[in-house]
Amino acid sequence: MNLPEQFCYLHDVDPSIKYDIKYASANNLIGRPIIGYQQNVCIVTNALGKALAGLQAELISENLELFVFETYRPTQAGADMLQWALDSEQIGNKKDYYPNIEKSDLYRLGYLIEYSAHSRGSTVDVTLVDSRSGQSLDMGTRFDFMDVLSHPNNESIGEIAFAHRQMLQTLMIKHGFLEIDTECWHFTLQDEPFPETCFNFPIA
Predict the structure, then answer these.
(1) C-alpha pair distances (Å), 77 with each of 24, 73, 81, 137, 154
(2) Which regions of the chain does DSSP assign to beta strands (E)?
(3) Which residues of 141-162 are buried (b: 16+ CB within 10 A; e: fewer)?
(4) Rounded to an integer, what distance in angstroms lies between the CA atom of residue 141 and that of residue 150?
(5) Are the beta carbons of 161 and 140 closer than 8 angstroms?
(6) Which residues are catalytic?
């Protein structure tokens, strides 16, 4: 697919970075592929790709590597998620992703938003993997777990998991990213090239 100017596929920038885009499958909050996700690929701005490649190079020297769950998200996906949230009969994968929150509260509490930073192309959901064992580091919760336990500074997840979160946060900030206070996996490039623009081309 021909991408907009300043966008690229992450595998073309650094093929060593592994990923599994959950919204392209049924293994996500909603329990089905989300509109706009036609393939399991990462699309990023050139700036985001460069930053992730630089971080990956540093991690490899420490026997670690990145694993990506989400990068660019078309705005049509946000609209699809909003429609799902308004449908009281569709609970999706509640037990895995929001067992302690009522579905009707997902937007009110800020766990879902229609216009995500992901739609600007320079936001990434990511974790760390031990490159020797291939196992993800314990971060206390799964990706997209909508709960206060996913807040980066929640120490109740245990000492080891909290230390892993702090390490990830420190590394991401070092490489030019900003964190948020509700999701330990979510980071946006501080100098993102499109801070005011949301895109809607499909992931294909």
Answers:
(1) 10, 7, 6, 29, 29
(2) 7-9, 18-19, 43-45, 64-70, 123-130, 177-179, 186-189
(3) bebbbbbeebbbebeebeeebb
(4) 6
(5) yes
(6) 183
Q: Each residue of 130-143: pLDDT tens digit?
A: 999 999 999 999 99
Bridge partners of residue 68, in order along the sequence: 19, 126
State the Cα–Cα distance between residues 37 and 6, nearest whole angstrom.
Answer: 20
Please provide residue 20's backbone torsions phi and psi, each rounded to the nearest 5 degrees.
-150, 100
- pTM recorded for the entire structure: 0.95
CB 65 within 8 A of CB 17: yes
Query: How does pLDDT run across 134-179, given as a tens digit for each residue?
Result: 999 999 999 999 999 999 999 999 999 999 999 999 999 999 999 9
Looking at this protein, which amino acid is placed at residue 175?
A: H
* Cα–Cα distance, 198 to 75 (Å, whole number): 7
